[in-house]
Every structure is written in structure tokens, then in C-alpha cells.
Design goal:
Blueprint (H helix, E strand, L loop, with lengths): L11 H15 L34 E6 L5 H12 L6 H22 L6 E9 L2 E8 L19 H8 L2 E5 L8 E8 L5
Antiparallel strand pairs: 1-2, 2-3, 3-5, 4-5
Helix pairs in contact: 1-2, 2-3, 3-4
Length: 191
């Protein structure tokens, strides 16, 4: 990984759930699970950590975490642990974790308006692709732009575009708020 973090020893989908639980317990907070509907990022009480790993078809991880910068490491570790069970090259795995981190940071910075907001991260395998989706409650759509050399931000979506095979923005389902930003990687056997 590019952030100096070592890879989690946990492997596969079960490992991702263990990483989430361990991260919450390390923080001294209770691990709480509750139902979540796709496309409807939830809301947490201030200070509440709400990682939710929802079971489903093999290759699916869905977690809801507070929209706080301090949760970025937990998100990256859970995604990395989950993706280790898929046929990704080491470079693809690193790219997926970095792109997820960028989307999570954008959701926290631009998509949350108060301390109770949450971000939903979904990782799913569909055929020969893996898709990572980051959803927040803000209806404001991000836009790809060229950042000036001296600017300290504004490169996140360009980085996601460079690291992934495809990416895009999805508006919420009718009657819901927020948006989702996603990227895909085509699965390849490591060489």
C-alpha cells in the first residue's frame, strides 16, 4: 500500500469482517450491526461508530461508517482484507485501496454536513469485475477537474480515473438522498 500501512493478515470476506470488528474494538467502541438499504446512507449519533457488514452473495462487503477522517484507515483495511480473496494483482489491490481512500475522503469532506453523517462503502464482484462504491448523503455531484500545480486538493477523481478501469457517479434511487461514486477493476490473475 502507498500509505505505509502493512497489509492485514486477515484474508478474504471473513477477514474483512474481522478487520472491521477489530478496528472498532481497538477504538474501545461497541461493534453494532443494523440493517441498511442500498443507496440510503444512514446517520449515526455523534461519536457513534457504526460499521455494518451485511451478508449477501459471495464477494460482497457493505459497511457503513461515520463520515469522519479517523475512519479512513478502517475502511482501507476492510477493503484490502476483502479484496485479497479475489484474483487481483498486487498493483490492482493497491490501486483499489488507494482509490477507495480517495472516494472516502471526498465523501467525508464534501458529502457530510454534520457529525452524525455516515458513508456506505460497498465492494462487490460482478463477473470479471470488482466494483467499489462509496455513497454519502449529499446530493451535490462531484466533478472531475484539472487542479492547478499549487493547489493542495482537487485531484481525487483524476486519481480514481487513473487507477481504475472505469468509474462514474450514480444518483440515488427515487425518494432517497445522496449519491454514489464508484469504480471498477477487471479481475486478473496475479503473475
Amino acid at each position: 500500500m502507498t500509505d505505509g500501512q502493512s497489509r492485514s493478515p486477515a484474508k478474504g470476506p471473513a477477514g474483512a469482517h474481522k478487520v472491521l470488528a477489530a478496528a472498532v474494538m481497538e477504538a474501545g467502541r461497541a461493534y453494532a450491526s443494523r440493517p441498511h438499504r442500498v443507496g440510503e446512507p444512514g446517520r449515526a449519533r455523534p461519536g457513534e461508530v457504526v460499521p455494518v457488514a451485511v451478508g449477501g452473495p459471495p464477494g460482497l462487503l457493505r459497511t457503513v461508517v461515520p463520515a469522519q477522517p479517523s475512519c479512513a484507515c478502517t475502511v482501507r483495511r476492510a477493503v484490502a482484507a476483502h479484496l485479497t480473496s479475489l484474483p487481483l494483482t498486487p498493483e490492482q489491490l493497491d490501486n483499489a485501496v488507494l482509490a477507495t481512500g480517495e472516494l472516502f475522503a471526498n465523501a467525508v469532506r464534501h458529502g457530510s454536513s454534520d457529525s452524525g453523517d455516515t458513508v456506505t462503502v460497498t465492494v462487490e464482484r460482478a463477473g470479471h469485475d470488482v466494483r467499489v462504491t462509496v455513497a454519502d448523503r449529499s446530493p451535490a455531484l462531484p466533478r472531475l477537474r484539472a487542479a492547478e500545480v499549487a493547489e493542495e486538493s482537487g485531484r481525487g477523481l483524476a486519481l480514481v480515473a487513473a487507477l481504475s478501469d472505469d468509474w462514474g457517479i450514480a444518483r440515488p434511487a427515487s425518494g432517497t438522498t445522496g449519491k454514489s461514486v464508484w469504480f471498477t477493476l477487471t479481475l486478473r490473475e496475479p503473475s
